[in-house]
User: What shape does this take?
Amino acid sequence: MFVENSQSNKDICKQNCGTCPSYCGGGRKLLFCSKGNINGSVEMKGCKCGMCPVAVAHKLDGAYFCVHGNLDTLID
Ligand code: SF4
Ligand code: SF4
Assistant: This one.
């Protein structure tokens, strides 16, 4: 399901991506399930997307959206 690039979703993402051991967005890049993957390499040390309320509300499958982006958002 398409994920809106909204402030409320960003705030939720900040609590999840922002505290993830793999996060490398410098505190500014967020909401990879809406905006797509990050440019650059990500050291995959775990992903918190599965427990994120944005992922639950939008029925997102998968994880590591900072690596792979979100196909649902790209095709919606
Ligand atoms: S998308 Fe997943 S792996 Fe990447 S920073 Fe967010 S929670 Fe961590
Ligand atoms: S599903 Fe992952 S990328 Fe999307 S808001 Fe939640 S933690 Fe961030």
